[in-house]
Amino acid sequence: MAAVRSSIPLLRFAAGSLQLGIAAEDVFAVTPETWTDDLHIASILGVHPHPQRERRTIRLPTSSSTELTSSSLALTELAGAEMAITGLASTDPNRPALCSFQADMPLEVIECEAEHIMPMPAGVPAKMWRPVMGFVDISQTIILLLDIPSVVEALLDEYRRRTT
Amino acid sequence: MNDSRRTANDDLANMVASRRTPSQWESDESDSDLAWPCLLIRVGSRWCGLRAESVSEVVVPEGVTKIPAQPEHVLGVSLVHGRLVPVIDVGPLMPDMDAKLSNPRGRRMAVVTHGESEIGLLADDAKGVIELPVPEYDPAAAARPAFIRGEVRWEEELVCLLDVPTLIQLSIGLV
What we know:
The complex is a heterodimer.
Chain A lengths: L6 E9 L2 E6 L5 E3 L7 E2 L14 E7 L4 H12 L20 E16 L3 E2 L13 E7 L2 E6 L1 H16 L1
Parallel strand pairs in A: 2-9, 4-6
Antiparallel strand pairs in A: 1-2, 1-6, 3-5, 5-6, 7-8, 8-9
Chain B lengths: L7 H11 L16 E9 L2 E6 L3 E5 L4 E2 L8 E7 L2 E6 L19 E7 L2 E7 L1 E9 L14 E7 L2 E6 L1 H8 L4
Parallel strand pairs in B: 2-11, 6-8
Antiparallel strand pairs in B: 1-2, 1-9, 3-7, 4-5, 5-6, 7-8, 10-11
């Protein structure tokens, strides 16, 4: 196993009453605009979006690209912002394919210390609760850590299901 | 993402994996006893017995964090003394047995373990540890869920003896 980092930036957001987090450096963009054809992350988690909170669109790359690195760095530089990270949308046809989803506010980038991470409970296989892959305890609030490839796969499955 | 490069998601997954300890299944039950000390819990109108050696503690359940897209019996996880414990409602695993949780205020959670695995079983009530007879062979057992070891009489109640290792495996999807 590769060396373990002592901390990692986490993009924290919500889906209804669920508190969720993904590796921030793998996020391509966060935009305040939302589109009706974008799924809400709640739709793959079996919950309902919060009826009153504002939403943001989170974009994940579905394939690798050198553009990913520069965009991720831009997001990391904005880590100090608490709200409304400005959009990084590009009209470049060569930009990587993106998978977008809506999420509920509040949305922020936090530095997640390794000691606050909690793995699956003992005895629960690591992939049993995918896309949840672990948990973070922040002041007695449990944040569910989502595995990005599992999220992308589930979103694509849901898109296909709805369009057939 | 179908990229062979390591991503931040991989780093996060490594951090999660590094916090895990491996688990191994062991079987240490002895069937030579005539009676077992058991913790009694009530789920709805159904009394259930848990072998005392499998019970690590009984707590008042606090905030349950829901795990998405899980079967009905998996209510989520709860923090118990700083560790995450899956919270299980056995009612959906015992259909047609009157085991429906009904007392949200006085609820208890029995944390049971087998090897490195543990789950928290929600109950409407929990009594102390009593001696229950080892269930005899019952031809009707085949029709019951696999984690029900048998049914025995206690005072005027019929108590389901739950096999904790089987229940743990079944409830967190290992079988």
